[in-house]
Amino acid sequence: MGTLTTSQFKRIADIAYANWGLALTEQKHQLVASRMTKHLRGSPYQSIEQFLDHIENNASTRDMLEFFDILSTNVTSFFRERQHFDYLEREFYTPLAKGNLTTPGRKIRIWSAACSTGPEPYSLAIHAMENLPDIDSWDFKILGTDLANSAVAKAKAGTYPADMVENLPKDLVDKYFVRGTGSADGTVTVCDAVKKLVTVSQLNLMADWPMKGPFDVIFCRNVMIYFDVETKKKLVSRMSDLLRPGGVLVVGSAESLSRQEIQLRTAQPSVYVK
Fold this sequence. Notes:
Blueprint: H1 6-20, H2 29-40, H3 48-57, H4 61-71, H5 82-98, E1 107-112, H6 119-131, E2 139-146, H7 149-157, E3 159-161, H8 170-176, E4 177-179, E5 187-190, H9 192-195, E6 198-202, E7 215-220, H10 229-242, E8 243-251, E9 265-268, E10 271-273
Parallel strand pairs: 1-2, 1-7, 2-6, 7-8
Antiparallel strand pairs: 3-5, 4-5, 8-10, 9-10
Helix pairs in contact: 1-3, 5-6
């Protein structure tokens, strides 16, 4: 297949930015080259040039999503960045449970954007069940979205290697996960009570969004690190528009909106309120 040249990498970077807002810098060259080599091995394409010509001129929606899978990185875990869950417990669920806060129609909507393989929306569901004792009396729904085909499929299945929950409290695992047996030994699956609160679907954050909101909470964590400043500004503005007054936007701890012109106040680092 040959090595990935600078001009070929630029073509890939241009495609990624135009379609998904991904800003691939030269530091990603070797990573992209390795993934391209692996993908093209055994494929019908005789060269990287031939593959890129197809992507640019004849690619189907499925082809483009498979290409995104090559470029994307799905790093996730349950209850990642615990301080964000602590904030929701302190400022959202506790006031709701005490009757000091309510939402219109007792409706709660949470969006986990770029949810990867699903641990984030399922963590949000488990966290809500633990902190809102009468959750069944609320109209409670979580939406998890991601663009990657493979991530969406895994999120819908809700089955994970058992070591992904080994650092969670045992009583939490026993309560909300089912351990696999036989051929599924070494896995855990989120229980039906958790799954029923979560809907997972495919969504390109750079395209039109079918949902209209309003959302009480939006988690968009560890995805904006792949975007340039202008793309971040547009994304944050669109998400802000979908938040109800008092709604919360949570970004990754490594991400900062301080340079963005946003109509949100900072509640704590990486947590913003409309």
